[in-house]
Amino acid sequence: MRLGGPHKRNLRTLVRTTFALVIKQRYVAQNWSQVTAPDLFLHEEGYNISKLHTFDDLKDILYGGSYTINSIPMILKQWTLEFDLTTEFLTEIRLWITLPNLPMSCWGNKALSKIASAIGKPLFADECTSNQMRISYARILVEANVTKKLPTELTLQDPYGRMFQQQAIYEWKPHYCAECMNIGHDCELTKRENKEEHPRGRKRQEKVTTRW
């Protein structure tokens, strides 16, 4: 079920990654085999541009889930004419969210879209959620600003006016470092690790014995 999504006239995606192009090509061949092999282009600012061949291929990749290489996330974003590769900083990232034990009265398209809007821009609900094939939890894809705190609990109101607390679980979410303004990095953690590797301690002085 589509709650929003990519524009049909734009079949390019931006991939934010530090890996070499050959590694990305190998990854695409192994993990994006369900679509026609896209054309890949490398930009020195750390972006790969993937040109898909059909709108269905683009939708399949964007809605396919989270992608990682060696446990390092690839951040995908649909390319636009206004995107500046030299200055743009990705803050809006697609995240899959599960809503466990969501009341059945809140499973409609409009209700799910409204719930997802509390976190970010609603994009898509997976097939099991759309067709209510799995009712233990709803699963929604949203585009959220990861520089802000992402809520893990939402206060909702059902169609009968009753208020309740709804847990929101992120299948994956990147860490944002406010100090260096980078995604996937933690300056405080790096400092702690450096201290552990090089602990500060008083230098032990050797005992000097003077002989006459």
UniProtKB/TrEMBL annotation:
Top-level taxon: Eukaryota
UniProt-recorded name of the protein: DUF4283 domain-containing protein
Signal peptide region: none
Region (Disordered): 192-212
Coiled-coil regions, chain positions: none
PANTHER family, alphabetized: DUF4283 DOMAIN-CONTAINING PROTEIN, ENDONUCLEASE/EXONUCLEASE/PHOSPHATASE
InterPro entries attached to this UniProt entry: DUF4283
Start and end residues of each DUF4283 domain: 25-86
